[in-house]
Amino acid sequence: MESSQTFSSIPDIVIVGGGAGGLELATKLGNKLGKKGRARITLIDSTRTHIWKPLLHQVASGASDPADHALEYLAQASWHGFQFRLGTMDGLDRVAKKIHLAPVYNESGEMIIPEREFPYDTLVLSVGSVGNDFGIPGVKEHCLFLDTKAQAVGFQKKLLETLIRVNTQQRKVEAGQLDVAIVGGGATGVELAAQLHQVTRQLTQYGLDVVNPDSDIRISVIDAGARVLPMLPEHISAQVTRELAKLGIDVISQAKVTKVSPAGIEINNDKVIPAAISVWAAGIKAPEFLSTLGLEVNRINQIKVKKNLLSESDDNIFAVGDCAAFPVDENGMSVPPRAQAAHQQASFVARAICRRLRGNPEIGEYVYRDFGSLITLGRYSTVGSLMSDLTGSVKVTGFFARLVYLSLYKMHQFALHGLVRTGLLTLTQLLRRTVDPSIKLH
Prior knowledge:
The chain is an alpha/beta fold. The protein folds into three domains: about 1-130 and about 285-370, 3-Layer(bba) Sandwich (FAD/NAD(P)-binding domain); about 140-280, FAD/NAD(P)-binding domain, CATH 3.50.50; about 375-430, no CATH class. The chain is about 30% helix and about 25% strand. It has a five-stranded parallel β-sheet.
């Protein structure tokens, strides 16, 4: 078996997962340690490119082209002093301090990279989360998920192909032929619903005008709770519900999904919501393989960590982002799966690793800071709440809310590229808007 083992006194820091937290951490450590030869930083991911996960609903709807936002891991590694390796972790040897990667195959089924092992002195697991189907029959078979860029692109292609097919068919549009049902009333489900409403109307500008979005397309958001957006104050949830109603989007609350079939979503064991396209955005869990590594995990496979984000099972292993179970209160509630949490944790772990390399075992404790949540309903509205030690929760709406929402992505880009490059990327995207179609048409 091929191994990346090299004989050197330079410590090996291995980061598994190139999402928001993992890539920011690799970039920070590469700049601070890798470029100076103080450590060997290796980032491992199962894909070749990074895209900020909160953008996936825009990719799925066609409102954003992933090519405009995707970042090549190999290029980022070259620029910032770390190395990137393509692969999927499937094993851990804590005694030998090695991780095992499965073989990598291409689309034709050919093996292009054999199985490998990578040694580590410090391991950081940042593998994110996936959709949680809760064992409900038919979800895996009949629902689309939005956990990865590939899934979001697949959704966009299916949506566009469905609209093109209906637009060119000889018969009239049949009832339910274009209905979309989204299970999950969190940020992803709500934002996707609004983006779909916007995009389906924009498509008529490009010749798909046989379909009448107002009468032929029904979009539903289904949630088991009493209201959508339970993580936001009730008055904001109510405002979003009213905005969705104005758009003609059905919000179906207190609807427990009991089965999914090709015909649609069955709720409460007695009613079916028809759907040509069913989307699952109802909950998350950490990847299954984490429960096989011998580390303490919770019921949704998240690694249990201490106050310093080190695994409860091993002081050489950190966990950050959605795959980490970091309690924030005495009731066992964990840090919510948000990009702001991954950003904060990446910054903390970067400082912690640097302190350790300087011989300081006191790395401190991570404290989660909730700066609030914002929801964008495409071009229609942006609402949310901002948190402050001085003012508490403050409701924000309109242009200011939109500006703050956009700034979250710019903060991520700044962490990866710095001020000048982020400015140039922003300018490039603004210029492309003048020549590109407003939505992705391929």
